[in-house]
Amino acid sequence: MEKYQLKNLYYYYVGKHFYKMYNLKPKVFGIGLNRTGSSSLGRFFEMLGYKHSFECYGAEKLKIFLNDKAALKKEMDKFEMHEDWPTAQVYKLLAEYYPDAKFILTLRDTPEQWFNSLLNTSGQEAAPFNKTKELIYGYGVITEAQREELIGVYENHIKEVTEFFSNTPERLLILKTSDKNKNDKICDFLNISRVNFDFPHSQKRSY
């Protein structure tokens, strides 16, 4: 077992009893990359009544969160649920900071489908968003030439996340965009009563 996995186990089991003792609502973090249904996930948690961040962070603010642990913790303390950037990049730290937190990895059905969505929406976003993509992926504007490289980034992210939570699988839920009854799966994962409204589709597209 890796050192980080032992540390993750320790913080999880200590924090689990703390949150249960004081009846606190554990935080939830969406850690899928963008174009995997992360916006819909955030919207669903708003419907559940979670305090959720509405801000789409720009590149400069993201740089701060990726390099300043105190600033990251201060920002995450404000919310009960957060998804997309920067949570997908700093989930290991968040697992330590919030030992009872739950994590949801959103995925497209295939890596190719994810890249196609990234490619087909590239150039449609405002210029500041291109700077954010450049910070995360190394490219502001996505082209066909980056297909193999970025699919590798996507697949490696999945591999690292699943390995990290391999010893605490109860902390991780994996959701694909085509999954049925996402609302039920999330409620069961959180051990809360199922809801009578459907999972939203904030940016539903055919690609």
From TrEMBL:
UniProt superkingdom: Bacteria
Database matches in Pfam families: Sulfotransfer_4 (PF17784)
Secretion signal, residue range per the UniProt entry: none
InterPro entries in the cross-refs: P-loop_NTPase, Sulfotransfer_4
Protein name listed in UniProt: Sulfotransferase family protein
Species annotation: Neptunitalea lumnitzerae
